UniProtKB/TrEMBL annotation:
Residues 35-257 form the Aminoglycoside phosphotransferase domain. This is Putative aminoglycoside phosphotransferase. The lineage of its organism: Bacteria, Bacillati, Actinomycetota, Thermoleophilia, Solirubrobacterales. It comes from the Bacteria. InterPro entries: ACAD10-like, ACAD10_11_N, Aminoglycoside_PTrfase, Kinase-like_dom_sf. Keywords: Transferase.
Amino acid sequence: MSTMTDHDHRGALPLEPLTAFLDAHGLGSGPVAAVPIGEGHSNLTFLLRRRSLRLVLRRPPLGPLAPSAHDVLREARLLRALRPAGVRVPEVLAVGDDPALIGAPFYVMPFLDGHVLTATAPPALAGASRAAAIGEQLVDALVELHAVDATREPLAGFGRPAGYLERQLRRFGTLLTEHASRRLTDLELVAERLRQTLPTSGPATVVHGDYRLGNAMLAAGPGPVRVSAILDWELATVGDPLADLGYLTAMWAQTNDLEDPMLALGSLTRMPGFATREELAARYAERSGRDVGGLGWYQALAVWKAAIFLEVSYGRYLAGATTDPYFAGLGEGVPRLARRARALIEQTAVA
């Protein structure tokens, strides 16, 4: 199901120059049909069809963007570095680095047959035993990512490991100051508490930055449950791996959780059989050997960042840059996230 209206994607993908680009890279033949796909609300993703060939194209959203946001060329470089290391990522087939071609940079990858889960699961993935395996697979794929040596080529130099958490606080604090559409005092308070209680990071790894159920593809078919691909790498860098675990667990909805814009993106995990946040964290600790005792700070960071990122998106909605109905609900949704971030950091301080 597409999350974009006609207004949102009209003009985002001029087909004549795209067809010539695909021809030049030997990617199919004949006319190109394109439809928006995915449940994401950031970079635009399109399914391309050329006769029997199916491809996927990623490009930035329309409208004004925050500096350094939605860098699909950087995303494509990372995918090409991670795939040979055994990380579960799609293959990058071609990169369009000239924005003049379709109005923005983009990259093309194969269409993968699988399931991206949000509110429901297909019959092949239904049931308590399959639900438990989904959580295990998400953790195991994350452990694999964090085991890759980010100091060796071609990953060396991809990010700056030292000071990662400090930079996250500065970057998102600046976004809040410069792009918020209103005063959000809860987020300001959380920012101060995060700075006051900043943990000491362990060895750096590649960090996905948006690691949650809705950004993983589960393999199709009747076989064992398996994460076949990790998607949406636009926020990836090198830094503290517990930031990913904090984000995964903070965005993992449980039965009695109050709804908010992020938990709504993965509400399936409220169903019987899914692991708890504590069980996910325990499996990660066992498989990775890392201490997760301070995970609450990282969960607060995750919710705080998500609230700010969505507040920037809400500003784009108010400016008329998108009509995505998800963004329309952020007027009330962002303050709910802000309250959850505050509750998490206050619980951490008590602990």
